[in-house]
Each structure stands twice: as structure tokens, then as C-alpha cells.
């Protein structure tokens, strides 16, 4: 039987120390199966759902293959969305935290082009990015890939769905033939098999299904048959009846996302939308508020939500059923994780009934249907986050550390440690989640108080209007 201890792998003491510091104690099934092959530099296909630990698997592998003394790009990780690219780059930086002078550069849209170009000119070991922005830098001569040892296509199925097939092929053509290629995909349709055949050499396939089976067992799925004009009323009734602590509502269009979030806010449910029309700063702030319990409801399109790792989500609602069963399974897989139960509800109008049949066929089960009148309404219902987020106008560039903010709030401001949640330090700003009831006390201090010996402006972040 394969040991699940990371120490059983041929990786450096620095890597083991970083894994321990990040809270990785035992390998997940996908890591136990794939890491020995990745470390042997084999081409590997990994088919597993979000949350299975596959990011750490390829992150450990590519770091193990690096030569820190060669300051050129040795690993390229391509992701379909900005959010996933940012999440992956953060994970790799964490895994590399005990290694000396490892530089990771993030290349994605929504961020200024100039600083990315300058970072590449100063050299980098690892590049993580989206296809469009990677191609832009290649065409402008900012990015050199001839030293790449490891190429990772993360969520390759979504990249194909988004129309990046040709861009992926153009980028791959610039890579050295003698490299390791890792292809990760939640699904493995014929298009992905073709991609694999064109870019990999004798790949070994790892398929881990346990998470999907577990989700099936503990996620309550219910379909509500409604007329088109009843969608909003049914959505509101679901919140009033089930009273979740947090939820994700999936929509099929950007306009739908914005309209549904606005509708929920007008009915005293704190909600924020995430879709392609938001700039990167807005997207980052929405995700941060959702992750730190400041905004309990996220209304998202599939592309914007892809790659988000959100634990302990109580409820998922399909405002409109997706057009394929794979997407449906991916959506409801957001809830019922880590052994917790979850609820997934779908609103289905008569013209969408064929989509429900597709889901039934895919899951080999009958969909259970209900009606709006079965839900108990509560005209006084409200849903707010347990915390609020404070934004400070200083970050890494101003040498601000989490301990500086924590010290100011628990020292002179008089808040207890339990009233302070997640602290996030960005380039030129910082964010602190605090208990809603402590907001006035914190703001009274920050109006005239100091952080790290100087006055720093702070304001409360709110869901975008």
C-alpha cells in the first residue's frame, strides 16, 4: 500500500517544511496517485474535481524540477480564468516559501501590462497565466519559453469551452519538445483526448472519482418547476424557507448575474455578482468578501466561478439550468464538501424541461421536483454576513504585515482576537474582516488612530451596487 506521508516522496526538506507550514499533513488520493509519476517526469493526465488537491500535486512536481540558479522560465501553468490563475500562483508561492529566491510571475488580463512586462525582464522561474495574456507577452517578445521543463494545462476542458483551442495550440508550439506536460481536467471528452494526443508523450491517466461520489450522497437535489415570471419569487422563497448561512446562485449570463444580485439586495439579502464585466480589482474584492463571511451570497457565471475553492457552502441555486450535465454536476459540487451536507436547488421553466432530462440521464436517477407553494415564506427575512471587511490604503509596498493590523485593532482599538477574521495584504491595500458588531469601535479608533506609527485611512467595503 502506498504511504500517504509526503515524507515518503523524493522531495527536498524545504518542500516538506513548506507543506507542513501550509497544513498539508497527508496526501489526498489524487496526490498519492499522481505525485510519484510527476516526480519521475512522466506526462500525466489528471481527471479530478475541484478541491481534490491537484494544484498542490503539480505545484510540488514543478518546484522539484526547478534549477533556482537558472533565472529563466522553467515552468508554465496555463489556466482558463484570472481567478484560477491567481489562486494557483498563490498556492505555488506558498509551496515555494521555504525555497530561496524562487520567483513566480502572474500573467492575466485585468492587470496592468507594464508591470508584468517589467517582472519578466527581471527574470522568473515560473509563469502562471491565462491563454490570452500569455500570448500577448509572447507576441511582444516579453516572454521566452525555450527553458520550460514543465508545462501544465489546468482545467483544460474549460479552456476549450471558452474558445482557447487555437491559442493553446500556438503557445504549445513555442515550447521545447523535451518537456513534461501535465493536463488537468474535470471531464475527459473527445476534444481533450485530441489535445492530449497532440501535446503529450505516452501520458499516464489518473482518475479520482471519490469526491464526486461523496457529493452525490450528501447533496440534497431538488428541482422547482416555475414559470419564467416566477423565478425571482422562487429564488427569494428558497432563502426564506431554508435560511442558509451562505449560498451561491449560478446564472447563465453576465446580465443575469448583475440583475439577480441587485434583486436579492433589494430584499435585504447581501449579495454580490461576479462576471466578466468586472475589472480585476472589483472581482478580487467580491471574492474576498465572500471568502471572509462579509458577503454571504455570490451570484456567479460558470466562467467566473471556475477554480474557486469555497469550503462549507450550504446552498447552491441554479437560477437557470445549464445546457449540459457536466456543468450542472460542477455547480452542485460546490456544496456538501468535507463531510458536510449541502443543498442544491434548480429553477426549471417548461422550455428547460429537456435539460432536466439530460441531467437525469447523466446521473442515472430521477430528478425530484417540487413547486413554489411548498416553500414557507417569511416577509421579515434578512441575510447579512457575520463580518464586515475594512479596506486600508496601505499594503505590501508600504511594508504592512498582518501583525501590524492585528496589533492595532487588538491593542489600541480594544477589539478581541476573536472579533477579527481573515487578514489579506495586497500590493497597495490591505483588508481585515471583523465582527459586524465591532465595526463602530474599530472605525472610531481608525478615524484618528495609527497603524505602524502612522495614520492609515480605512473604509468599509460593501457589495458592488
From TrEMBL:
The keyword Cell division does not apply. Pfam families: DbpA, DEAD, Helicase_C. GO terms for molecular function: helicase activity. Keywords: ATP-binding, Helicase, Hydrolase, Nucleotide-binding. A motif (Q motif) lies at residues 4-32. SUPFAM superfamilies: P-loop containing nucleoside triphosphate hydrolases. Residues 35-206 form the Helicase ATP-binding domain. Residues 4-32 form the DEAD-box RNA helicase Q domain. InterPro entries: DbpA/CsdA_RNA-bd_dom (IPR005580), DEAD/DEAH_box_helicase_dom (IPR011545), DEAD/DEAH_RhlB (IPR044742), DEAD_box_RNA_helicase (IPR050079), Helicase_ATP-bd (IPR014001), Helicase_C-like (IPR001650), Nucleotide-bd_a/b_plait_sf (IPR012677), P-loop_NTPase (IPR027417). The keyword Disulfide bond does not apply. Residues 218-380 form the Helicase C-terminal domain. PANTHER family: ATP-DEPENDENT RNA HELICASE DBPA (PTHR47959:SF1), ATP-DEPENDENT RNA HELICASE RHLE-RELATED (PTHR47959). Belongs to the DEAD box helicase family. This is ATP-dependent RNA helicase DbpA. It comes from Candidatus Paraluminiphilus aquimaris. The gene is dbpA.
Amino acid at each position: 500500500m502506498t504511504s500517504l506521508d509526503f515524507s515518503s516522496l523524493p522531495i527536498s526538506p524545504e518542500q516538506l517544511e513548506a507543506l507542513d507550514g501550509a497544513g498539508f499533513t497527508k496526501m489526498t488520493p489524487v496526490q498519492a496517485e499522481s505525485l510519484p509519476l510527476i516526480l519521475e517526469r512522466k506526462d500525466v493526465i489528471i481527471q479530478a474535481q475541484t478541491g481534490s488537491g491537484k494544484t498542490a500535486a503539480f505545484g510540488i512536481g514543478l518546484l522539484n524540477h526547478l534549477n533556482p540558479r537558472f533565472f529563466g522560465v522553467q515552468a508554465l501553468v496555463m489556466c482558463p480564468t484570472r481567478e484560477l490563475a491567481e489562486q494557483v500562483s498563490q498556492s505555488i508561492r506558498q509551496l515555494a516559501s521555504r525555497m530561496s529566491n524562487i520567483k513566480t510571475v502572474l500573467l492575466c488580463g485585468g492587470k496592468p501590462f507594464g508591470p508584468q512586462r517589467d517582472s519578466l525582464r527581471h527574470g522568473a522561474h515560473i509563469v502562471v497565466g491565462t491563454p490570452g495574456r500569455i500570448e500577448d507577452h509572447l507576441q511582444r517578445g516579453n516572454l521566452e519559453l525555450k527553458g520550460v521543463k514543465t508545462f501544465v494545462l489546468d482545467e483544460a476542458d474549460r479552456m476549450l469551452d471558452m474558445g482557447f483551442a487555437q491559442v493553446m495550440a500556438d503557445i504549445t508550439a513555442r515550447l521545447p519538445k523535451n518537456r513534461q506536460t501535465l493536463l488537468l481536467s474535470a471531464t475527459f471528452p473527445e476534444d481533450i483526448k485530441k489535445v492530449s494526443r497532440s501535446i503529450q508523450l505516452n501520458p499516464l491517466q489518473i482518475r479520482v472519482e471519490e469526491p464526486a461520489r461523496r457529493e452525490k450522497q450528501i447533496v440534497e437535489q431538488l428541482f422547482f418547476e416555475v414559470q419564467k415570471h416566477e423565478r425571482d419569487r422562487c429564488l427569494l422563497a428558497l432563502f426564506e424557507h431554508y435560511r442558509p448561512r451562505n449560498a451561491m446562485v449560478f446564472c447563465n449570463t453576465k446580465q443575469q448575474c448583475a440583475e439577480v444580485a441587485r434583486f436579492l439586495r433589494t430584499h435585504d439579502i447581501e449579495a454580490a455578482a461576479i462576471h466578466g464585466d468586472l475589472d480585476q480589482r472589483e472581482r478580487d474584492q467580491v471574492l474576498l468578501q465572500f471568502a471572509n463571511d462579509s458577503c454571504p451570497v455570490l451570484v456567479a457565471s460558470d466562467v467566473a466561478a471556475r477554480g474557486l475553492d469555497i469550503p462549507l457552502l450550504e446552498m447552491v441555486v441554479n437560477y437557470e439550468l445549464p445546457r449540459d450535465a457536466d456543468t450542472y454536476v460542477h455547480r452542485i459540487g460546490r456544496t456538501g464538501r468535507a463531510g458536510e451536507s449541502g443543498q442544491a436547488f434548480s429553477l426549471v421553466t417548461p422550455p428547460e424541461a429537456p435539460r432536466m432530462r439530460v441531467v437525469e440521464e447523466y446521473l442515472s436517477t430521477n430528478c425530484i421536483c417540487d413547486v413554489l407553494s411548498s416553500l414557507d415564506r417569511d416577509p421579515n427575512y434578512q441575510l447579512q454576513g457575520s463580518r464586515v471587511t475594512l479596506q486600508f490604503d496601505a499594503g505590501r509596498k508600504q511594508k504592512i504585515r498582518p501583525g501590524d493590523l492585528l496589533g492595532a485593532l487588538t491593542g489600541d482599538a480594544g477589539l478581541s482576537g476573536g472579533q477579527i477574521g481573515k487578514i489579506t495584504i495586497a500590493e497597495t491595500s490591505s483588508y481585515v474582516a471583523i465582527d459586524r458588531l465591532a465595526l463602530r469601535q474599530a472605525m472610531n479608533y481608525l478615524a484618528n488612530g495609527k497603524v505602524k506609527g502612522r495614520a492609515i485611512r480605512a473604509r468599509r467595503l460593501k457589495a458592488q451596487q
